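Q: Structure for this?
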Amino acid sequence: MTRLRMPVLQSDLNIMKVSIIVIGDELLLGQVVDTNSGDIARIISSANWQVSHVVTIGDNGEAIRKAVKTALEVSDLVITTGGLGPTKDDITKQVLMEFFGGELRFDDTVLENVKEVCRKRNIEPNELTRQQAMVPSSCEVIQNRVGTAPIMWFEKDGKVLVSLPGVPFEMNEMMRTEVFPRLLRRFGDDVNIEHRFLLIFNVIESEIAARLSCFEESLPPFIHLAYLPMQGYVTLRLDGWHADREFLNGVMDSKRKDIEREFGTNVIWNENRPLAEIALMLLRRNGLTVSTAESCSGGNVAHALTLIPGCSDCFAGGVISYSNEIKKNVLGVSEDSLELYGAVSLPVAEQMVEGVTKRVCHTECGISTTGIAGPGGATATKPVGTVCIAVKTPRRTLVDCYRFPGSRQRIIDRTTNVALIKLIRELKKLEREKKG
Amino acid sequence: MTRLRMPVLQSDLNIMKVSIIVIGDELLLGQVVDTNSGDIARIISSANWQVSHVVTIGDNGEAIRKAVKTALEVSDLVITTGGLGPTKDDITKQVLMEFFGGELRFDDTVLENVKEVCRKRNIEPNELTRQQAMVPSSCEVIQNRVGTAPIMWFEKDGKVLVSLPGVPFEMNEMMRTEVFPRLLRRFGDDVNIEHRFLLIFNVIESEIAARLSCFEESLPPFIHLAYLPMQGYVTLRLDGWHADREFLNGVMDSKRKDIEREFGTNVIWNENRPLAEIALMLLRRNGLTVSTAESCSGGNVAHALTLIPGCSDCFAGGVISYSNEIKKNVLGVSEDSLELYGAVSLPVAEQMVEGVTKRVCHTECGISTTGIAGPGGATATKPVGTVCIAVKTPRRTLVDCYRFPGSRQRIIDRTTNVALIKLIRELKKLEREKKG
């Protein structure tokens, strides 16, 4: 029952509680995945607040009423997203007035803002967008610079409710730049919460847990260990909370070191960063460039790399060699190897990485993938999930064959992660050898 | 207040209510995005049940207790994910026994299953994985073929609670193949729910709403229209529910036709499918192949295409030409154009698509993207978000320049969607011209 320590202690320390209410029928139908609640949690994670629950409900008055009532009972701060917008009825505004009083009134500054946003988007405001300027008299309006739905800040009995639009980029932009800074000014900081992360490769969750059981027993009551299995690796997270930040940081760093010692070279990294960002950072600090030749991962390795700002320093580009013709003509894979071993084979993966780095992109490092992502394409000797990955660095070219379980999407994600992990490990070895 | 019609009517019709409880500290920290609740909603969407709310909570007993209590009060079926697994304490099992009675007992068949799963994964079961064979005596166990945490089915007073593991692929696989079929047998079908979709391009949400206001007024009380803004397009969804399925289908189809007439060629498609799947279907039925030359989208167009099973019929491959050298050497973009117009320009986009289709991949169709995804790389005349997209079909090569707002990720997603939409529109025109 040791896992109960964290919440018990946190309530002792009077940590501010946050509830998030996500409104939208489309979420309950599974048509759209809710990213808003996670984004809000990430944005406020630098403050010493705890998200105690997230509720997703449809666009209907009764559900919103119930959710707001519960949230105001258990939390100090309630953040809602969605249930606004030009094509929604004003159910959300009506329900919020039941709790915070006031009446709908026309707000000139909101209309001005709506007109300005429309002007930037090169569209004519119509009657529906004008309706958005009707806001409850009981709220303070925060102008939405990137959309037409105004942000509403309500306050009563020391509790705050902020209503944000549901469109993810509007919510994100305004939460980050306007709402969170105001919330920080409104609610002070008492207790410090710190997190430490370790990404572990090639050891499964239950083995990690077995090897860390004594370590876990020895943790002080203000530190908690969590396991997050990812595609191809496990993230370990240490959560700590204490009034003395300096003391806390010291203990957390030392505990992270204990885990690093236990798992040695199976530790991929000791921060919580995307694998692509870690790989690019290592490339940059060693003055190296990389290119990709992807068959079964279909561009996803390149996509992961190019999501990271500034990647063009180190990432030159690549080839998606879905057909054998491209493998031969562009990458220079030999006809013989394709016939003798098949497209999904170690020699072809190796020739792909040689081809993309030497013939096409002229980079020192490279990644290649060739495999069967399914559901079709399997043969007697090569079932769905068979994937060959080659990684080239100035050290050597490493080629391995895997058998990944699961769906097409899962095999593509796993291939992408394992390829990046292999590159990271090779680059770390290279650094160590340079130093040694 | 017309939006209130749907829930009111649904409760009149005694539609079965479903609550989903998602358990995991990592979700409240925003470290992992919850895809389980959306997946469950999609899987059960073929039944006439309504997901009335989704709650996300941490791994702690008090939160689980509260959430289960509320869910059992308001819903007929409660599905929980997470809060199990070898490294969690058995808090979830303990809390469920408070509601459904029983005591923990050792289950031989679960241990056999755990051993079998470990064997397939080539790992040794340890003491922690063995603990998973301790299950409440009050539940029926459904063996988890793809993981070690057993699935538990509880039933009391006509209500069912199913506890599923939190790992997305395990949850998905078992929900789809075992749990949902059992639930369908357990709960009958009375009322039919139908959905219709339309993907609309180049008309913003508020204009769509203004043009559909009379249409919305004329909808019968059992049909409801919802607006879902996506990156680069808007999805319209009609929800209908009625005891007579044939009648309902007739009315829904006719209402969808009304919207199609209103928006004409701005309708991208009249089903809810990924854009890449629509593009591949049109290519296939016209015997065409496609390749990609991506700069700013960095492989994401190819990734979207290769996520669709069977894409290799029509997708040959492509080039990620992040550096100018690759644009020149591989795609044959002229040095002069790069110097005169810059890499982000209409001539370069056009030469990229010509190069990838004629020199590299030998396909009839092609997509190219070149732009500034930011946050760096902007110039005085080309701000962040400037993107040139070329689409080639046997009809013609179409090249356009856009200015997309938002973050790097958003610009990449928008570029990907707009490129696919342009290809879909050109292929539809091609089909019409062939027929005409």
